[in-house]
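name: query_chain
kind: protein
chains: 1
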Amino acid sequence: MPTIENKPRHRAFLRGMGICAMLSLLSCGPLVRPWYNRDVGGYVQPDPSATPTPEVPKALEETDADRLRRTAESYLGVPYSFGGQSRSGMDCSGFIRQVFSEVYGLDLPHNSSRMFRKGTPVTRAHLKPGDLVFFKNLGFIDHGGIYMGDNYFIHSSSSVGVGYSALNAPYFGEHYAGARRLIASPDDPP
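structure:
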């Protein structure tokens, strides 16, 4: 506890600390405040892209396709289980349903043929990551997956569980039924 004799020294110390604190704040980067510009003849607001911000810039935000891929791939290796929708086992529609619930908050039916009736039809040439792809056998939709780009889709198959397959693989190429887009992207036609 300071005595009466060294109180002035204590105040000088605190005043010096205030100056040091101000200098350290100034050295951390530009302040987000207007400044006077002689050429303009007044104060200029800083360009938001050139100033520090506590928010993630829009250009660097994670896209839905990235979140979708990361979520779907977190299930790679989960075994197939008819009617399942958990990490202990899932079928194709349970897998799609779980991923779309986690990423988009959608509540899809746990049935591939009912999913096939949702969304907007998409031609094979216009597939985008996140589109659902469906396959039929004996005239009925019996399997589905999530298209991830470059001719690959991720799905839960009865032979290996959750994994990737190529759309043009012999079985899938022959049984391809179509695709649906559930989540519209900004560049989709109205």
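note: The mean pLDDT is 79.
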